[in-house]
Design goal:
Order of helices and strands: HEEEEEHHEHEH
Number of helices: 5
Radius of gyration: 18 Å
Structural class: alpha+beta
Number of strands: 7
Helix content: 25-40%
Largest sheet: 5 strands, mixed
Strand content: 25-35%
Distance between the termini: 42 Å
Shape: globular
Length: 174
């Protein structure tokens, strides 16, 4: 129960400290819904129709367009692995992002996992509630692939921290 409360608090902080807002939860695509299936042309000439369910879709309106990111909640030990994505072994998040950005007006901002952390390990020394929360926040930072557009990254994390506690990036002073 304590862990769920902490997860909820961290999710609220992610939303509060960025400009992206959740617009859909448990969004199905390719099943006769408002979002079409992802179609893949096969070498045989046939088409593969991919459908599924996206845990969360976030959106942010900007001067140059509308940006989207997809978030998949993970309770197990799965980590984001860029090598597996590029080699075609782990395409879940890529397919999700393709499904929600199916036209040129919808810009891709990121595809991320939110890993629901297990309880914190027993501390070797006494720590404050704030230190414990900060440690959990670090463990539960979104993990995945985001755009390299600094403007969009700052819309995902507007705290000004050099090392983001929200997305997997570090900012430079410039």
């Amino acid at each position: 129960e304590q862990n769920l409360t902490s997860c909820a608090m961290i999710l609220v902080n992610h939303i509060k400290n960025g400009e992206f807002e959740p617009i859909e939860c448990e969004l199905t695509f390719g099943m006769g819904d408002k979002v079409s299936a992802v179609m893949v042309d096969l070498t045989s000439g046939k088409k593969l129709k991919i459908h599924g369910k996206i845990d969360r879709v976030d959106k942010c309106e900007a001067e140059d367009g509308t940006y989207f990111r997809v978030i998949d909640y993970k309770s197990g030990s799965k980590d984001f692995n860029l090598g597996r994505v590029f080699s075609g072994l782990d395409l879940q998040l890529s397919v999700y992002l393709m499904a929600v950005t199916d036209d040129d007006k919808k810009k891709k901002a990121g595809m991320l996992y939110f890993k629901i952390a297990e309880r914190l390990q027993d501390a070797k020394k006494c720590i404050s509630k704030e230190e414990a929360f900060s440690s959990l926040e670090e463990k539960m930072r979104l993990d995945g692939l985001v755009t390299d557009d600094k403007k969009v990254l700052s819309m995902m994390d507007k705290t000004g921290d050099l090392k983001s506690k929200i997305i997997p990036v570090s900012f430079t002073k410039d």
